[in-house]
Design goal:
By secondary structure, the chain is an alpha/beta fold. Helix content is about 25%, strand content about 25%.
């Protein structure tokens, strides 16, 4: 009996040490896509679900990893913060300042944590609004149900940020989004320029593609926190089993959706076979089809 208890105790200690180490690590995951709408290769870095985590002092390891990829644009599809942990908003702010100071354009949209912090009845709403002002002053652009045309090394892209309603994140219920929501918030997608969409919740990936986004970046699911090799994510943050859109690259009707495993955690600080990640996406001009002689 005591031997069994000892074995269980050792397993628990080993697991705790492994998780403590695992939560301090992230990887760089690289993807490529092609588009007929561009003539030059463009590089996008995706920082999602940071939740005020810091990799080294002042997030130095994460900053250096981003700079090493030499991105043309940093895309942030939400949840840089944890709503109620206002004393750590400064961690996210410092990271974005470093990237902006390095001359990299940063475009952000709200995740569910930012949306909650912006509610009129949130007790520390003033702190959140000050944080948003400071991000803007640093040079970051916020697109919440807004779009903008961006010039990147001679290429023109259209970027939209979708702020989803909080009811779409309700726990224990299949994610719901009203028909026509994207068009009502963003208008029509561009058929001329590379259309980029920042949309925090990946559950509506097929809707993003149908709307016309050539490249969508999402987060939220944290890769499912616990993954089973060969099977995938076990549960979503909404406590739904085996989410279809958990992490990785998805092609829907020829359009790309990239879902980040995120860089931080909150509430349940675990990652099992599911390391945090910085996404890097290279968009390349579409190759001309080989001509038959």
């Amino acid at each position: 009996m005591f031997g069994l208890i000892g074995i269980i105790g050792v397993i628990v200690l080993v697991y705790a040490a492994w998780q403590r180490s695992e939560l301090k690590k992230f990887r760089v995951t690289r993807y490529e896509m092609e588009s007929k709408k561009i003539k030059k290769e463009l590089t996008f870095a995706v920082i999602s679900d940071l939740h005020s985590f810091s990799y080294g002092v002042d997030n130095e390891r994460l900053v250096q990893a981003v700079l090493a990829e030499r991105p043309d644009l940093v895309l942030v599809p939400g949840d840089l913060i944890v709503t109620a942990v206002t004393n750590k908003y400064a961690v996210a702010l410092a990271l974005i300042r470093r990237l902006c100071d390095a001359g990299i354009p940063v475009v952000c949209s709200n995740g569910n944590h930012e949306s909650r912090a912006g509610l009129l009845d949130f007790a520390d709403r003033a702190v959140f609004l000050q944080y948003c002002r400071q991000l803007n002053e640093a040079g970051a652009v916020f697109l919440n149900n807004e779009c903008r045309i961006q010039k990147i090394r001679g290429e023109t892209v259209r970027i939209c940020g979708l702020e989803l309603p909080l009811y779409s994140y309700k726990k224990g219920r299949k994610p719901y989004l009203e028909e026509g929501f994207l068009t009502s918030c963003l208008g029509s997608a561009s058929d001329q320029h590379l259309q980029i969409l920042l949309a925090h919740h990946p559950a509506f990936a097929d809707r993003y593609a149908a709307w016309g986004a050539d490249l969508t970046v999402c987060g939220h699911n944290h890769g499912g926190l616990v993954c089973i090799p060969g099977i995938g994510s076990v549960v979503s943050p909404q406590f739904l089993p085996f989410p279809e859109y958990d992490a990785g690259e998805f092609t829907i009707d020829g359009r790309k959706v990239f879902i980040s495993r995120g860089l931080g955690t909150h509430t349940f600080h675990i990652r099992v076979f599911n390391r945090a990640e910085l996404l890097v996406i290279k968009a390349k001009p579409a190759r001309e089809p080989d001509r038959q002689p």
